[in-house]
Specification:
7 helices; alpha+beta
């Protein structure tokens, strides 16, 4: 009866993933329960906000995962744990399905008497049954006659020794706890001492900040005095000049009016010509602008929240207002490595008019994501007098950058500007350096860098062809395959081939000698369904195979299984009939997720680290990508798709598109790109 109950109970305690009895069961938000270890491989990282989620394999409902605890942070399935304890109790029951009840307190008190003969005192200890017995139990016919037994006094010391030995780890743990308590007291004292020390440091820092503020206050007042004194001096000089001229003019007017009033007619007539000349000279030598104040009270105080200084700043309104200045030009958006890019800075003053004064403290810096900084410089031109200044910079690395433009400690409007720097190397994909023509319908391609050879599979004549990498000449051919597809070469120069319609993987020498094979049609371990491509990972010495089972199967060089990851679907980490796979020199695995129209990147721990591409024919979009190749030295990813090759950097940022059609693509150690043009029966090398 107990065995039947145990069997039924175990049927209810099977994990739906590993099909084994639950181990550390965890409860998802959808109420489904799985083993903790089974859930670990289902955790997916969101590419935008970095959050972790877990999709239930049964209902697909997503459960958020805390970054700190991971799967350990999920709630335990307490009712399942209780059932597991019941199962363990059933398994430990005796033949009759009954367990021995604990002794009553009275039985403990009477333990000096034999359990079988209650009137007899115990004198022996049965080693076989590990219980106290009397002499009657040990004689012929007794229950323990055939067992090993000894007098109590003889086994007592050994029993004491065993108990002492068992107590040793307990005492050691007690000592560890005592030491931990002492350490806690010591750390508590250190925390208090640290608190006092930091209070002193904070007080000193506050004093230093106060002194700094006082220093800035003095500097601001000095600057204000300097600007005001300059303005007053300019106004004083202008005033003195005008007062002198005013005195001369009034003297001339007074003397002439006096002559007109008191002079005799002959004198007045004689004065006409000299007075005419004198008044014209006085009027012509004086411009109306001279009456305008050369400066005015336009000094302003900028509060701290609008600038980088603790107390703000003071400035004259005619000087450049960096915060409200702007910039334009293609260099604010993109640039090319090694080529100068230009922007135009539109400087305005604090009157919101074009600033024609010289720009003070202009800084232009292009900073890459890795921290590499390139300085920009001002280009002298005819536009400088109109308030516009040209600035140029020359990038040295590709990728995302930030362009900072700062005038007098103020970033201009829009700064920093996001700038993407493209590589110019892609111009080399226009004209092939070499064309290999002695092959029909090439599919798979790889490069044997050790022997300077190009290895390709042919689907029409079902063979492997090997060519000279330098000349493209055919060196040797071997065949007899049913449907050769993807190929790769390991560090020991062994060739691995996807024999697609035979649903197997072959291991060969580069002379065509058969070494081993593995695989048959199916979904189990070491079974395949039309394997399309295979890649060798130099970091962990493993092979990675993609097929129509919507997964990646990992093999060792001896073709034994080393794991499987991936499943059918369109969520991150899931696959839909992948056709291509490649590994870079750092060990990352790039999968051409063909019918999901994207590239997925995994690490050697089979964790998803990057996804890029989406369905579309525009820049950055992908249509049925069939293969992928990585140029690690140049941080370039080549993806072959419908009638073109799209180019990304290793972060998934789109860079360029080549109209070169090709079924498969690969890259050698020199950065040369090999494209299989199946329809035209050739391989182009760029």
């Amino acid at each position: 009866m107990a065995e039947l109950m145990l069997k039924k109970l175990e049927q209810q305690l099977q994990c739906a993933i590993c099909l084994d009895i639950y181990k550390e069961p965890k409860l998802l938000q959808c109420s489904h329960i799985y083993c903790k270890q089974c859930l670990t491989c289902l955790v997916v990282k969101d590419l935008h906000d970095g959050s972790l989620t877990l999709s239930c394999p049964v209902c697909r409902q997503k459960t958020p995962i805390l970054n700190e605890g991971g799967v350990n942070g999920l709630k335990p399935a307490f009712h399942i744990n209780h059932l597991l304890e019941i199962r363990e109790d059933l398994r430990n029951q005796g033949p009759l399905g009954k367990t021995t009840a604990p002794p009553e307190p009275d039985a403990v008190k009477c333990s000096v008497f034999c359990a079988s003969h209650v009137s007899k005192e115990v004198e022996l200890f049965c080693d076989t049954c590990e219980e106290l017995i009397c002499l009657k139990c040990a004689i012929k016919g007794g229950k323990h006659f055939t067992h090993d037994y000894n007098p109590i006094n003889e086994v007592l010391e050994k029993c004491k020794s065993d108990i002492s030995e068992w107590l040793e780890p307990v005492e050691k743990q007690a000592q560890l706890i005592k030491k931990a308590l002492d350490d806690i007291d010591q750390h508590s004292n250190e925390v208090m001492m640290q608190k006092d020390s930091l209070e002193f440091s904070i007080s000193n820092a506050a004093t230093a900040v106060h002194e700094l503020i006082e220093s800035e206050k003095v500097n601001l007042l000095d600057n204000l005095k300097k600007i005001s004194d300059e303005k007053l001096e300019m106004l004083t000089l202008q005033k003195n000049g005008l007062e002198s001229r005013f005195s001369k003019l009034m003297s001339c007017v007074d003397s002439m009016k006096s002559g007109l009033k008191t002079g005799i007619p002959s004198h007045i007539l004689q004065m006409k010509t000299p007075v005419s000349i004198l008044t014209k000279e006085l009027i012509s030598s004086f411009g109306s602008d001279s009456t305008q104040p050369v400066t005015k009270a336009d000094v302003r105080y900028v509060s701290p929240e609008k600038c980088f200084n603790l107390l703000g700043s003071v400035h004259a309104m005619g000087s450049c207002d960096g915060k409200n200045s702007s910039a334009s030009g293609a260099g604010l958006v993109s640039a090319l490595v090694g080529e100068k890019a230009k922007i135009v800075i539109h400087a305005v003053n604090y009157h919101s008019k074009k600033c024609e004064e010289p720009l003070k403290n202009l800084h232009c810096e292009l900073i890459s994501t890795s921290g590499l900084t390139v300085k920009g410089s001002v280009v002298e031109s005819d536009t400088s007098s109109s308030g516009d200044r040209e600035v140029e910079y020359c990038p040295v690395v590709s990728g995302k950058h930030k362009l900072h433009v700062i005038i007098s400690d103020h970033p201009i409007t829009g700064s920093p500007f996001p700038v993407y720097v493209k590589r110019t190397i892609f111009e080399s994909l226009v004209t092939p350096k070499l064309t290999i023509k002695d092959i029909d319908e090439p599919w798979g391609i790889t490069v044997n860098d050790r022997d300077d050879e190009v290895v390709a599979s042919s689907t029409s004549i079902r063979c492997i062809s090997i060519f000279s990498r330098s000349s493209g000449a055919l060196l040797r051919v071997f065949g007899g395959f049913s449907s050769p597809r993807g190929i790769t070469i390991d560090k020991d120069s062994f060739l691995y081939l996807c024999n697609c319609e035979s649903h197997c993987i072959l291991k060969l020498t580069l002379d065509g000698k058969f070494i081993a094979s593995v695989g048959s049609l199916g979904r189990n371990v070491l079974q395949f369904c039309y394997p399309k491509d295979i890649a060798y990972n130099p970091v962990n010495d493993k092979l990675y195979v993609v097929d129509a089972n919507d997964r990646v199967q990992v093999l060792s060089p001896d073709l034994s299984s080393s794991g499987i990851f991936g499943m059918h679907g369109s969520c991150p980490g899931e696959l839909n009939n992948p056709h291509g796979i490649a590994c870079d020199q750092s060990g990352l695995i790039y999968v051409a997720d063909t019918y999901n129209h994207r590239i997925q990147v995994f690490n050697t721990d089979q964790e998803l680290v990057e996804v890029f591409g989406s369905r579309g024919s525009k820049e950055g979009g992908l249509l049925d990508p069939t293969s992928v190749a990585i140029d690690t030295d140049r941080d370039i990813v080549y993806v072959s798709e419908r009638k073109r090759i799209s180019i990304f950097d290793t972060k998934g940022i789109f860079v360029a598109t080549s109209n070169q059609a090709g079924k498969r693509v690969t890259v050698d150690n020199e950065g040369l790109v090999y494209v299989c043009n199946t329809s035209q029966n050739m391989i182009n090398v760029y």
